[in-house]
Amino acid sequence: MASPLPAYPQxxxxxxxxxxxxxxxxAQFWSVPELNIYLNEALTAWQAHARxxxxxxxxxxxxxxxxxxxxxxxxxxxxxxxxQTSTDAQLLSQxxxxxxxxxxxxxxxxxxxxxxxxxQDAYTDALTRRRDRFLLESQSVIGHFSAxxxxxxxxRVVLPSSIIDLRRVAFFDANGDYTNLWRDDEFAANAxxxxxxxxxxxxTPTTYSVISTPPYTLALIPPPGDxxxxxxxxxxxGPPLNPAAGxxxxxxxxxxxxxxxxxxxDLLSQDGPGRDLQRAAYCExxxxxxxxxxxxxxSVVNAAINENSAQLDSVFNFDAYSVDWHNTVGIPQFLGxxxxxxxxxxxxxxxxxxxxIGLDVVxxxxxGVSDSTPLGLTADxxxxxxxxxxxxxxxxxxxxxxxxxxxxxxxxxxxxxxYRERSLAQAPYWPAMSGxxxxxxSQTMVTLx
Length: 449
Hints:
By secondary structure, the protein is of the alpha+beta class.
């Protein structure tokens, strides 16, 4: 008869923090709130590398805020476990700990407390720059927007200046129908119809171009013969940051640490008393590490519609193989992903008969749980997470001590990679299961070549 599995003590935040304290052996140099921050970063880095915590979530299709039927759903709003909560104030606090600067923006010090090394604007500018760069490079957050200003007979449409990268355009006509517009260029338009610029017989355009237009402007080919608006999928700049108020970054929580390191890479590269090119190079490498991990991270790995298994696809494929999908009302048979956050139904759900959506998602790391809540970690996983937290804590020591701690980060990354590869080996079709959110990006890039 087989023996029962042995029971082991549960790993909690309190256990991790005590292990970290025992290793650092200097309670005066690191405060408990500071160590909690480093443990949170280590947990999110573990999730980013290992894709460890997953959960089944459900929600029902519904009307949008204006009472209209919708076929795009932002998972950040529908799934609390994917909500974006990291703020610029939190990253500022972490950077100040790393650089041994006074803490700003906390109740005891509500006013700016920085030194002459970096002023308040330098921090805000660095965070803003790296946040927006991360949005572009990771392709993780896709927004669903509407653009007015389409004039019958005119091909040029000015777009909001907040758009960083345009991913999809559809024309919404006066009859309430959507028509997907494929990306093209003026060379092709001229080759097939040299008079396209003055052709307005069609009620809707068929393609669009951004190659010959001014910034934040696209050309509709041919010009629409009727009024309408544009339905856009795009990467947009995040909201203006203000660490004094605590603004949500608008990026996935599991990668907020990448933005922190990117901002520090910029700060430590500047001329002045804070210049430290060795640690700036390290921070730049950590930023790039976060971008690459985010690019390969799936947000949804399995799906169901009304408790029946559903195939995950891309919005690009919806447009290519079911051209009228966003004008058809019914029960969706497939779900499509754009980025990590935007889910599309393969037709418009009937408002009178909501559809239940079930998703197996890679959730945010459990950084907000109590000290006594079990984290579901094994002892060896907890060990490397404390390795990473220790390495993060030693950053502010600099010099040879920090250089020696790089081995801890290397050990953490290697262990997480081994765990991830071992998990993937148990799923013969993992590339198909995990690639839906990036499929849209790769297919869209094909149209750009």
